[in-house]
Structures are given as C-alpha cells and as structure tokens.
C-alpha cells in the first residue's frame, strides 16, 4: 500500500467509524465536501493543514500529520533531490516547460503516463515516482506557511502533444483551467499539433531548450534548477 492510499484509507476508516458521511466531515473541518471526496479518491494530495484538521476532528494523536509527513518524504529521481528542499520552502516558483505540463500541475494519470516511459523502471517504482510527484503539489494548497506563488510559462505545443490517451489529456487540460491558485501563460512558440516523437529532438536523444525552475525565498537566498534531457542539475546561488 502506498503512502497516499494509506492516508486516504485511514481518513475514510476514521470517518466511517464515527458514522459520518463525507458531508458530515466537511461540517467538522474547514474543507468542502468536494475536497474531502477528492482526497479519499486519491485525486488530491492531502496538505499539512488538512492533516492537522483531521487529527483535531477525529481526536487522533498526530496520526494524519505523520502520514502527511511520509508523503513529503517520498522518493524523487536522484537528479531532482537537491532541489526538492528548495521547492518545499519557496515563497514563489517560476517554471518554464517546453515539452510537458509542469510536475506541480500534473494530474495523477498524466504523471503516470509520463513517468511510465522511463526505461528500466518497474511498475512499483513508477507508483513511487507518481506518488512523490503528486506529494510535491501539496505546497500549492497549504495554509501554514502560505502557499507559494506559482508562475508557469508553458509552450503552446504542450497542449497538443499526445503523451497520454485522449481522456487523460482532456482531464489534464481541464485541470490546468479549473484547479489550483495558479497564474498560467501559454506561449505560442514552436510548431504545434506535431507528436513529440516527430518534433522533439529529446525523444531522439538530442537536446533543445531546457526547462528552468527558479525558487525565490529571501533576497539573498535563491536557487535555480534546470532539467536536461538525461537529468536535472540543481544550482544554488547567493545574491548580493
């Protein structure tokens, strides 16, 4: 059982033990029925704030807080790990992607379609990678500390690139429109409507523009992370 499904199962079990419906739980905590339903259905990663309110509503001794902490400790690809701590602490994130929807904005099905293409990766490892990617998204809905400002600059071709079945792509694009405290800009550069395998040198082992993430914190403490075709490079700099 994965950490995400364990959180959802324990949440549902604690609710049903008290004879509460999802609507009843929504009356006990400052979260909507929709948010509770999505958390139990594994469609939304639980935040630290939700875990705290669940412990209070159910009278549990930090059970959900510990489960939520496990979500934040899930494995990341080795090349991303140096940047993960910066992302978790950021007050603002600026992301540019030319090939895929940014990980912080991916749906579970889209993330799985992308990560399943990694060579020599067993299904169980894909499960862990998907869960880790979704776990990162909790920073966008947290209350304490406040969620970071996220600016995502996405090349137009990302919207047309069929990296997953049509239903998955539909849900992913709807997610970009309907979910999250996100300001999004789609830039129309590059060809559109062309499959990635035909258009993108990255699929053939070449290189092209690299996505860049910049984490903003204290003015003297900033970090940038660029993803290359075969991995990621994390760079920390102190600004005068």
Structure characterization notes:
By secondary structure, the chain is an alpha/beta fold. The chain has two domains: 3-72, 434 Repressor (Amino-terminal Domain) (Orthogonal Bundle); 81-237, no CATH class. It is 43% helix and 16% strand. The chain is built from eleven helices and six strands. Strand 4 (212-216) and strand 5 form a beta hairpin. The radius of gyration is 19 Å and the shape is globular. The N and C termini lie far apart (47 Å). Residues 189-210 and 228-240 have low confidence and may be disordered.
Q: Mind summarizing the main beta sheet?
A: 6 strands, mixed
Radius of gyration, Cα only, in angstroms?
Answer: 19 Å
Bin the helical content.
40-55%
Oligomerization state of this entry?
A: single chain
Describe the strand arrangement of the main beta sheet, using strand numbers.
3-2-1-4-5-6
Going by helix content, strand content and strand pairing, the class is: alpha/beta
Q: pLDDT under 50 segments (min length 5)? A: 189-210, 228-240
| Terminal-residue CA separation | 47 Å
Q: How many H/I helical runs?
A: 11
Number of domains: 2
Order of helices and strands: HHHHHHEHHEHHEHEEE
- What gross morphology would you assign? globular
Descriptive tags:
alpha/beta; 434 Repressor (Amino-terminal Domain); 6 strands; 43% helix; globular
Provide a compact summary of the structure.
The protein has 2 domains: about 5-70, Orthogonal Bundle (434 Repressor (Amino-terminal Domain)), CATH 1.10.260; about 80-235, no CATH class.
């Amino acid at each position: 059982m994965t950490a995400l499904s364990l959180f959802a199962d324990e949440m549902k079990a604690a609710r049903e033990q008290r004879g509460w419906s999802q609507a009843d739980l929504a009356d006990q905590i400052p979260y909507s029925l929709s948010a509770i339903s999505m958390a139990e259905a594994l469609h939304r990663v639980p935040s630290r704030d939700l875990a705290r309110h669940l412990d209070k509503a159910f009278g549990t001794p930090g059970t959900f807080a510990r489960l939520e902490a496990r979500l934040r400790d899930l494995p990341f690809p080795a090349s991303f790990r140096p940047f993960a701590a910066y992302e978790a602490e950021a007050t603002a994130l600026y992301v540019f992607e030319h090939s895929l929807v940014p990980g912080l904005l991916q749906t579970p099905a889209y993330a799985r379609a992308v990560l399943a293409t990694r060579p020599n990766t067993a299904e169980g490892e894909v499960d862990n990678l998907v869960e880790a990617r979704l776990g990162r998204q909790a920073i966008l809905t947290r209350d304490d500390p406040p969620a970071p400002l996220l600016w995502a600059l996405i090349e137009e071709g990302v919207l047309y690139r069929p990296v997953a079945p049509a239903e998955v792509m539909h849900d992913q694009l709807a997610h970009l429109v309907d979910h999250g405290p996100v300001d999004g800009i789609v830039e129309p550069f590059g060809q559109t409507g062309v499959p990635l395998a035909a258009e993108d040198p990255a699929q053939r082992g070449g290189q092209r523009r690299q996505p860049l993430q910049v984490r903003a914190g204290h003015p003297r403490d900033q970090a940038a992370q660029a993803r290359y075709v075969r991995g990621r490079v994390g760079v920390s700099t102190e600004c005068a």
